[in-house]
Amino acid sequence: MRARQLEVFIAVMRAGTVTAAARMLNISQPALSQILLHTEDELGFTLFERVKGRLRPTPEALEIFADAERLSAGLEGLRRKTTDLRLGRTGLVRVAASPPPAMAILPRAFTGFRAQHPDILLRSHMAPIAAIIDMLRAGDASLGVAMDDRLPPDIEAEVIGSVGFSCLLPAGHVLAGKAELTLADLAGEELISYRGNTRPADELAHAARAQGVALSPSLEIDVSISAIGFVQAGLGIGLVDALLPWHQFAGLAVRPLANGPEFPIALLTSRTRPLSRADEMMREQIRAACSAILGEHRAKA
């Protein structure tokens, strides 16, 4: 019994007449009768007997009706599922990001996505880049956002923007009187910045050499957000990415690093794992959020 025959059989069982069943399925009475006759021919037995203008199910029809309803419900569920997948209405989107984009980009991206697709479950993972790569490879995340595009060959890195550096000064620091700072201004200061062998540390070291400035952090950090407490405690000047909204934190004077290096914001995917439609839509939201945030940064500069 094919899907259309199944629909006609169940409609007639529920409606009791050809007229009512045809109305339920939005087809003509002759078309429904024809499908019903073909179904009985293929099955080799009669499904209905005409009794006083109504169709009375035969014992064979009653025998298969419960199974037909279960099968019909399964088919309808499959139709809904495939429609939802086609339209991106169901599923799970998992995004892993390093702390700056996780805190600055993903909230805006998730807000835009949720407004259009409220039924899709979102899952955010904050992790260092090595862990993001592992999650993409294992399928534990479909998308990654990191501040590095130097990645293994099985990871696709789409650069969606670039960002410079900010200087976080303790309140009342003498350098807070300047509108912007240079690497030369920071020479000889106690610096709180990235540990070696990371992308931002490499970019800063290269720029310092090019400008003839010696930079050596006295306090190394793994993630920029951790600099806040150290700066507030007066342990030095934080030299960190400019992506996070540093002005919202109390006890800091934030100044841009002029003539400093930039490093990339990259959208990561696995080359070996295809994205779902929902993942594709989230990727678009991340691109848009990153573009908007960097545009706001440029407008303030």
TrEMBL record:
The record's family statement is: Belongs to the LysR transcriptional regulatory family.
Lineage start: Bacteria, Pseudomonadati, Pseudomonadota, Alphaproteobacteria, Hyphomicrobiales
Q: Where is the HTH lysR-type domain?
A: 1-58
Keywords from UniProt, A to Z, are: DNA-binding, Transcription, Transcription regulation
Q: Does the keyword Transcription regulation apply?
A: yes
**Record GO terms (molecular function):** DNA-binding transcription factor activity; sequence-specific DNA binding
Give a yes or no for keyword Calcium in this entry. no
Q: What is this protein called?
A: DNA-binding transcriptional LysR family regulator
Pfam families tied to this protein:
HTH_1, LysR_substrate
Choose any GO biological process term that the UniProt entry carries and state it.
positive regulation of gene expression
